[in-house]
Write a structure and sequence with these properties.
heterodimer, A: alpha/beta, Elongation Factor Tu (Ef-tu), domain 3, Rossmann fold, 2 domains, 7-stranded mixed β-sheet, 6-stranded antiparallel β-sheet, 7 helices, 19% helix, B: alpha/beta, 3-stranded antiparallel β-sheet, 13 helices
Chain lengths: 272, 348
């Protein structure tokens, strides 16, 4: 019987500084491990600890996996010290991922905040794999300041996937170089000619951001069941046993981490 | 029903014969408590196969408090043999099996121990004031989930077979097992009834609500913040209730590095009362306040598991009542939730 707590080794190939406290790591697994966009994995620093992250790369690229990670806790601080060649551990994938089949033929309205763009990048690449299967792909990204924007050099290239793709970035606080919108991400959430009855919105970001984005989306006319939220909790075992990530009747690790709003809206403290 | 009798001396002899094959634990009396410890025939006089539920819950053996889950270390290859397991602990196995032994992913450490373990259950010879198994659909005597069950009857024990493993054991060591008389079965029923009456009396005195009354009550009391705040006012977040509880199953995985043993991953029991239990590195914490964490413990037992497993995750063993240094009494909590009115319990 397979040991669900064991990881496979992976080699760090590359690290990219996205911002002062966010890095993207490219790992090459020494064994078979894949994922579907929205699923997560546990990344281990051997002998130190592990933590859950959603890969940010294209799920069709099997050779390597990207993870975009903010330095926030004990494990992530050490991760930020990883150099090419360093060995980490990977186990997973866990959770259900984005139901891409439900998105086909629809207008996709993606809202990201801060490092929450990481799982959405994996989603975008998955959508771009079959870009013409979706009527529209709109991305609204909010970041604290221009310096905190992740994937700076990539965002422009995303627009090239077709005239039905649109990306807009807003920052909470601008600076002398910033020409775009200044304000919370909710200030750039507009109808934008969307056919909301045939749209879905996928949201990932800090809890407080997801809360106000959800309220704004409801105001725009989205139904509860059209809003997909990344309810990232303290997923530890990944297989619904350790108890840490329970939300009401669900475990974020196996029933999520992506939930439609109708499933969770009546549960206590979902935005904390 | 297939009943036998075995003398205490023969039982000790039998366990001695089984010792090379099994890792055997039996209950010993220690002051006013009964504790499991490895079988040692020299301590025969301290053993208590009747008695009442032991200090340690059965999960201590099958899902131990600290277990290395990743590395190449050798484990005791012998299957477990646990003697003297009470009805309340047997009832907890349904939950532990659900969490660790079923679903898409099984815990191979749990599954191996659970499948191989020989469970020798036994009747409670008396009840503790904290016992309320009957309110939680349990009983002070084993009804299922055992291989054989012992019912102490003076100088010998009445033996009931509960499954194929038990049948095989009795067959293999048949010289130890004798035919009972009709009076033996009657004596067993009588003694069971007398302990059950004792438990019922404790439930009556305390006005402890039963499962029927509790159903839905904890969920309904969710917004009774006054009650949960008041209840948690003496909680010191020690987690003793979780550790003592036979159904609490939450654990923490942590990695350690040692020069001698290399890297390993350890699975240890965790407590949902700890502030960091649900906190994430970014700082978000769905249960920031202590009262939310205490409420969560009851929500998990009396709302979550009834919903996902149609099972109330409390067996009425009363260990948490005994373990709590803040005198938080699960029976009073349930009473508060059921009545919808919160009054401080009389012992505060």
């Amino acid at each position: 019987m397979k040991n669900p707590y064991a990881y496979i080794e992976a080699e760090t190939l590359k690290t990219v500084d996205e911002t002062s406290n966010i890095k993207t790591f490219t790992f090459k697994p020494r064994g078979e491990i894949g994922f579907r966009a929205g699923q997560f994995m546990e990344v281990t620093i051997p002998g130190i600890g592990e933590a859950p992250y959603t890969p940010s790369s294209n799920h069709d690229h099997k050779e390597t996996l990207d993870f975009t990670i903010m330095s926030a806790g004990r494990v992530t601080k050490l991760m930020h010290g990883l150099k090419p060649g360093a060995i980490v551990g990977l186990r997973g994938p866990y959770g259900k991922g984005y139901p891409l089949h439900e998105f086909k033929g629809k207008e996709i309205y993606i809202v990201g905040g801060g490092v929450g763009l990481a799982p959405l990048r994996a989603l975008l690449y998955a959508l771009f794999n079959d870009a013409n299967d979706y009527r529209k792909i709109i991305v609204k990204y909010g970041s604290r300041s221009p310096k905190d924007i992740v994937y700076k050099n990539e965002i422009e290239t995303w627009k090239r996937h077709g005239s039905h793709v649109d990306i807009q970035v807003s920052v909470d606080i601008g600076d002398e170089t910033w020409k775009g919108n200044v304000g919370l991400v909710t200030t750039i959430l507009k109808k934008d000619g969307l056919d909301i009855s045939n749209a879905v919105s996928i949201v990932c970001g800090p809890p407080i951001m997801m809360k106000f984005v959800t309220f704004k989306l409801l105001e725009l006319g989205f139904k509860d069941s059209q809003i997909y939220l990344s309810m990232e909790k303290n997923m530890s075992c990944g297989v619904g046993k350790c108890g840490h990530c329970r939300i009401g009747p669900y475990y974020a690790c196996k029933d999520g981490p992506v939930f439609t709003y109708d499933k969770i809206k009546d549960l206590p403290n979902i935005w904390e | 029903m297939n009943l036998y009798i075995i003398s205490l001396k023969d039982l000790i002899d039998l366990l001695s014969r089984l010792q090379p094959e099994y890792s055997i634990f039996v209950p010993y009396r220690k002051g006013d408590r009964i504790q499991f410890a490895p079988f040692d025939p020299a301590r025969e006089r301290e053993m208590e196969f009747g008695g009442v539920r032991q200090t340690q819950p059965i999960k201590s053996f099958i899902s131990p408090s600290r277990e290395i889950v990743v590395d190449g270390c050798r484990k005791d290859p012998r299957p477990l043999f646990i003697a003297g397991v009470k009805g309340c602990d047997l009832q907890s196995l349904k939950l532990q099996d659900h969490v660790f032994g079923s679903g898409d992913v099984e815990d191979p450490f749990y599954t191996r121990k659970r499948k191989e373990a020989f469970i020798m259950a036994s009747d409670c010879a008396y009840a503790l004031e904290t016992c309320f198994c009957l309110a939680m659909d349990g009983a002070p005597y084993p009804r299922k989930e055992f291989d054989i069950c012992l019912s102490p009857a003076g100088s010998y024990l009445i033996v009931e077979i509960g499954g194929p493993k038990g049948e095989e054991l009795v067959k293999k060591y048949k010289t130890f097992f004798k035919a009972p008389s009709r009076q033996d079965a009657e004596a067993r029923d009588k003694s069971r009834q007398s302990v059950a009456n004792q438990v019922s009396e404790f439930i009556r005195q305390r006005r402890t609500p039963d499962i029927k009354a509790v159903r839905g009550a904890v969920k309904a009391s969710h917004d009774n913040t006054t009650m949960w705040e008041d209840l948690s006012s003496t909680c010191v977040e020690c987690g003793a209730c979780n550790l003592a509880c036979p159904t609490c199953h939450c654990f923490l995985l942590y990695d350690e590095r040692s020069a001698r043993d290399g890297d390993r991953r350890v699975k240890i029991w965790d407590s949902c009362l700890y502030k960091t239990f649900a906190r994430v590195a970014g700082g978000a914490n769905p249960r920031r306040h202590l009262y939310e964490r205490l409420r969560n413990r009851f929500d998990k037992k009396f709302a979550f598991f009834p919903e996902v497993l149609d099972y109330f995750a409390c067996t009425g063993c009363g260990r948490c009542i005994e373990a709590c240094p803040g005198d938080i009494d699960i029976r009073e909590v349930l009473k508060g939730a059921v009545s919808g009115k919160w009054e401080k319990p009389p012992h505060r």
